[in-house]
Amino acid sequence: MQRSFIIAVDGPGGVGKSTVSKKIARKLGGLYVDTGAMYRAFGLAMRDAGVNPDDDDALTEFCSNLDIIYRADENGIFINGLDYSEKIRTEEAGGLASKAAAKSIVRRTLVAYQRTFGNDGIIVVMEGRDIGTVVYPEADIKFFLDADAEVRALRRLKEGRDGLGVKDMKKALAARDRQDSTRKDSPLTRGDDAIYIDSTNCDIDEVITLFMTHIKKRLPRERTAPLD
Ligand code: DC
């Protein structure tokens, strides 16, 4: 068992965490882990199983029998044998995820799974809301990626799956940000030790260059081979 080199990427919805994290992982020859996909799939699976998130007993029972598999290589997410990889990319799934994510039992269950990626002796780029603060407080490097609400709504719309207008997308994201930032357990917060990057006026390549500049300073020498 060898400790992985963990790069934590947190921030609000629609900010571009997935795009940036995926590219960084590819550049470093590391593993990309999308924890939002786990909460989204959980939200859908919970609904499919008819579990009411406000019914504590039912939710605990559902969590104790949860079989979750994340396949980093193909962005695959499976719960209890069902494939949610395609279904998770809607604002509806995002809303269900955000509701489920406010429940401590759900967080405990998914965080335990997320921590299993830390012992493989690899480079892991993990993105979410609480990676640097809760999942891996000991992460080797932590980022908080941010952008204005309008820009985030436009970025999410570019993914083109929802059929929402800018105004409705902005509203949906604001509702989710509010829920994610005000929940009691592991709210979305910018940790003091995270590198803050405001990407409102940056394109993706500029953001990646900024990330790589910081990462290169912290990567141990033996890990630098895949860097270009
Ligand atoms: O990043 P995303 O939009 O795919 O995340 C979907 C929801 O899941 C988000 O509203 C909050 C929740 N989430 C969380 O609470 N903690 C994480 N580490 C990742 C996502």
**Strands in their spatial order, largest beta sheet:** 2-6-1-7-8
Cofactors and ligands: 2'-deoxycytidine-5'-monophosphate
Low-pLDDT sequence parts? none
CATH C-level name: Alpha Beta
CATH third-tier fold name: Rossmann fold
* Helix fraction bin: 40-55%
Secondary structure elements and their pairing?
Elements: E1 5-10, H1 17-28, E2 31-34, H2 35-48, H3 56-64, E3 68-71, E4 76-79, E5 82-83, H4 91-101, H5 104-115, E6 123-128, H6 131-135, E7 141-146, H7 149-158, H8 166-182, E8 195-198, H9 204-218
Parallel strand pairs: 1-6, 1-7, 2-6, 7-8
Antiparallel strand pairs: 3-4, 4-5
Helix pairs in contact: 1-9, 2-4, 4-8, 7-8
The protein binds 2'-deoxycytidine-5'-monophosphate.
Descriptive labels:
single chain; 228 residues; alpha/beta; Rossmann fold; five-stranded parallel beta sheet; three-stranded antiparallel beta sheet; 8 strands; binds 2'-deoxycytidine-5'-monophosphate
Describe this structure in words.
There is one protein chain. The chain is of the alpha/beta class and 228 residues long. The chain has a single domain (5-219), classed as P-loop containing nucleotide triphosphate hydrolases (Rossmann fold), CATH 3.40.50.300. The chain is built from nine helices and eight strands. The chain has helices spanning 17-28, 35-48, 56-64, 91-101, 104-115, 131-135, 149-158, 166-182, 204-218, and strands at residues 5-10, 31-34, 68-71, 76-79, 82-83, 123-128, 141-146, 195-198. Strand 4 (76-79) and strand 5 form a beta hairpin. The protein is globular. The model has no long low-confidence stretch (mean pLDDT 92).
